[in-house]
Specification:
single chain; mainly beta; globular
Length: 123
């Protein structure tokens, strides 16, 4: 049985929201945000290789949402999505933890992800 190891409740993102990573010497990677909390997001993307864990700056944007640029974050994990393990490029998922803690940042996240539930930021 799968046991949830996350400290904070994640909310599935139903709207089209995307994250863009600018990786030095590797270009730009854009993926779809699958779920989010005020402490981080899960992003699904196509790639030929794995993202390194560690600091990264991302932009988050959606069709009907304000854009968030240069969000200082950390890549916590990067895994190949098992349902597409035969393909090249690979479908991958990565977990991102936000490093910003300001209240205006959390307000922007709520607006971006249209989450009406109270999210408790204890990252």
């Amino acid at each position: 049985m799968h046991r949830e190891r996350r400290k904070h409740k994640r909310f599935e993102i139903r709207e089209e929201v995307f994250a863009a990573f600018v990786i030095p010497d590797a270009g730009v990677i854009v993926g779809r945000v699958l779920d989010a909390s005020q402490c981080g997001i899960c992003v699904q993307y196509l790639a030929t290789g794995k993202l390194d864990t560690g600091p990264v700056s991302i932009s988050i944007f959606g069709l009907d949402s304000p854009r968030m640029n240069r969000v200082e974050s950390t890549v916590m994990y990067d895994l190949e999505a098992p349902e597409n393990s035969w393909s090249h490029p690979q479908t991958r998922r990565c977990g991102i933890r936000f490093e910003q803690r300001r209240s205006e940042f959390k307000t922007q996240l709520k607006a971006m992800f249209r989450v009406n539930a109270a999210l408790e930021p204890r990252c």
